[in-house]
Structures are given as C-alpha cells and as structure tokens.
Amino acid sequence: MSSTRPHSLHHVNFPTTNPDRSKEWYCKIFGMDHVDVSHLSDTKVLLLSRGNFELHFTPVETMQRMAPYHYAIEVEDWDGFLAHLDSLGVRHTKTVERPQNKSKFCYIHDPDGTMIELTHHDRREELERHAFRTF
C-alpha cells in the first residue's frame, strides 16, 4: 500500500553572511558536523548535519529581515540544553510552557539574526505514538 504521508523533514536552507561563523556557531550550539560537498559541485552552500537532520546555508552579501520566520529544533534535555546555552553566553527568551501538553519553548538567534525556536515535549514518546492518526 502506498502512502502520501511525509517521512520526515530532511533539511532547511537559510542565508548566511558568513559561512565560517555559521559553521562554528551551529557546531558549537547543536553539535552538528560539517559535510564537505565541495567535490560534488562548485556550490558554496554550507551543509551541516546531526545525522537525523541537516541545515544548509547559502552565502549572501546582505541579510534580509527574516522575523517572524523561524524554524524549531526539539531538544532532548530542556534544562541541560539551557545550561549549555548559558555556559556559551547564548541569550534566550523566557521559557513558555504550553498547558495543553506541558511542552516548553523559547527562542534564540544565530549570528545572522535567524530566529530559532527551541522546544521540548516531556511526553515525546506518547506524542509520537499518536502522530498522524488523523491522516
């Protein structure tokens, strides 16, 4: 039986005014690895991977205002990740908890000002079991 349901989000691509700075920041903050694709083509796209998702960055001369556009990254250990950010001096907004599912979120910005929502679901396994039931 065929399915029209998506498997997962593979990657997102954002602009960056400084690929080296973005590579250093994302590797430090999210533990990502740089994947060198320069041998495949003459593309200047920066490709970073965590294995289960990728972030791509296209170099640009000037950054366009992106707010309120953003993407969200689910973190496994909320308190541990916020402590990691604090230890690196990365500012984040106040944590908000959604009462309907006890999930938490806050926002950070990368060096180019791209907004990133950090989110955590205490009941992740339960949510995954019930995901896509309505599709």
Describe it for me?
- This protein has 135 residues and is of the alpha/beta class.
- The strands form two sheets. The protein has a four-stranded mixed β-sheet with strand order 1-4-3-2, with helices on one face. Strands 5-8-7-6 form a four-stranded mixed β-sheet, with no helix packed on it.
- It is globular, with a radius of gyration of 17 Å.
- The two termini are 15 Å apart.
Brief synopsis:
The protein has 135 residues and is an alpha/beta fold. The protein has helices at residues 19-30, 78-88, 124-130; strands spanning 11-16, 33-34, 46-49, 54-59, 70-74, 96-98, 103-109, 115-120.
Strand content: 25-35%
Radius of gyration: 17 Å
Order of helices and strands: EHEEEEHEEEH
CATH superfamily: 2,3-Dihydroxybiphenyl 1,2-Dioxygenase, domain 1
* Tally of helical runs: 3
CATH class category: Alpha Beta
Write down the overall mean pLDDT. Answer: 86
CATH architecture: Roll
Low-confidence stretches: none
What does the overall shape look like? globular
- Assembly type: single chain
- Looking at CATH, which topology would you report? 2,3-Dihydroxybiphenyl 1,2-Dioxygenase, domain 1
